[in-house]
Amino acid sequence: MRSLFQPTLTRRVALSLVGAMALAWGVLLLFELYEQARLEQGQHNPALIEAAAELLEALDIAPDPSSAQLVSASMQRMIDGSRKRANIPGDVLIEVWDRPARQLVYRTPDLPVPIYRTVERSSSRWTVRVGQSKVDRTWLLHALIWDLTKYVLIALPILLVPVSLAVMLGLEPLRRLSNLLTTRGPDDFSRLQFDPPHAELKPVVTSLNDLLQRVRSKVDQERSFVQDAAHELRTPLAVIAAEAHVLTRSTDDVERGAALSRLEGSLARASHMIRQLLDLARLESNGPSDHTTTDIAGLLRECLSAHNPAALARCIELECESPDKLERGVDLPALRCILHNLTDNAIRYGKEGGHVRVELHARTGSFEIVVEDDGPGIPQSERSKVFERFYRGQFVTASGTGLGLSIAQRAAVRLGGDLRLCEARDSQGCRFELRVPSRT
Fold first, then answer.
1. CATH code for position 228
2. Does 175 map to a domain?
3. What's the rounded Cα separation, in Å, for the pair 225 and 105?
4. CA distance 102 to 182
5. Neighbouring residues of 188: CB distance < 8 A, sequence distance ≥ 6
6. Domain end marker among 105, 135, 165
């Protein structure tokens, strides 16, 4: 039952056509009413003019007043009969004058109502006057409505049937396209082998093929991501299993201590990777960003304080240059994720005994965060790949997962900002610049 009232394109076109016919009916009715009102205000009436001309032409064969009287009476009966058959109310006046004798030859007898409009025409012998009584407006309105409605009702099905057929036939390629999509398998992202006959469908097919291409690329990317994640997790899990086996079987305290240390390191590495994977999954979700007014300077100092033990372990000095307070509306988890990963990367891959410098600058309409280290840096040939997931470079010896910069870049996109790897000031080390537009 619901399908009967479900909107369809064919029904919409049919209703539009009915609406257009109704609008045309209304416009024509207003036009006819205007024409009738204009005729009532003036003496120019085509029907009366034509009747007067025909009467004057018929009188040309009348040699005398008696013949003229017969001709006029015949014309009177013909006009009255025609109006009666058409159910037109009112009366028609006919007067005929003999011009040379200045004598009234014929006049419609017993007119019950006054004549308010007349047309006069003359020849060398006769002068005729034709007039009519005032027609009731209600009758005139009903007559106009009926006449227009009659023609509209006749024209509507004549127009509706071919238009409906044209719409249904025009939608047939769209149905074939729908069936083609329905029968495709869930893993089939190949291009649609469909050449639409109508130019209007070509952009639709092109857009669908582009969408399938993007979905295939996204699925391939996610499959690669899962494979890489499984590969990266396999090593710490294998170490955990091996060291757990040593702990359960070994009786040597030194060996057990070394195994426990390696076990804790593998657990920390696996935990770190799982946390990063969860961060990346959250950042790549399509959920809305929650912007909160935050003191960016305070958040920066909090992040450096959290990473200070790791910096002290490598004898790295942390430097911070920022205003005392800078409040902006940001996605707090995303910004905290960027600061954590950039600082962690700088400490992890920087030069031991060196320093890491973090800067915060307020710009017009934005703010900028810079994280710079004095480590070995990244070769120019590898800089275009540093934001790829699980990419760690060819000459990296420090432990890591290769996810930090990828997570930071996704977080920057979520903030609506831009994260770039730039040339360090001393041409040594790495310098990452994050620019984020300000929100009120």
1. 1.10.287.130
2. no
3. 111
4. 93
5. none
6. 135
The answer to whether 205 and 196 have CB atoms below 8 angstroms apart is yes
Domain boundary among 119, 135, 151: 135
Instruction: Give the whole-angstrom CA distance, residue 352 versus residue 35.
Output: 99
Does residue 20 belong to any structural domain of this protein? Answer: no
For residue 253 the two structure tokens come to 């305290």
Strand, helix or coil at 389?
A: coil
Does this model's pTM top 0.70? no
Reported residue count of the chain is: 440
What's the total number of domains in the chain? 3
Amino acid at position 204, single letter: V
How many CB atoms are closer than 10 A to CB 253? 8
- In three-state secondary structure terms, 290 is coil
Q: How many helices (H) and strands (E) does the chain have?
A: 10, 11
Domain range enclosing 255: 202-282
Asked if residue 81 belongs to a domain, the reply is yes
Nearest to 280 by CA among 127, 409, 97: 409
Model confidence pLDDT, tens digit, residues 101-144 = 888 888 888 776 566 677 888 888 889 888 877 766 676 677 77
- Pairing outcome for strands 355-363 and 317-321: parallel
pLDDT tens digits for 373-429?
888 777 777 777 777 766 655 545 455 556 777 778 888 888 888 888 887 776 678
Alpha carbon distance 199, 104 (integer Å) = 76
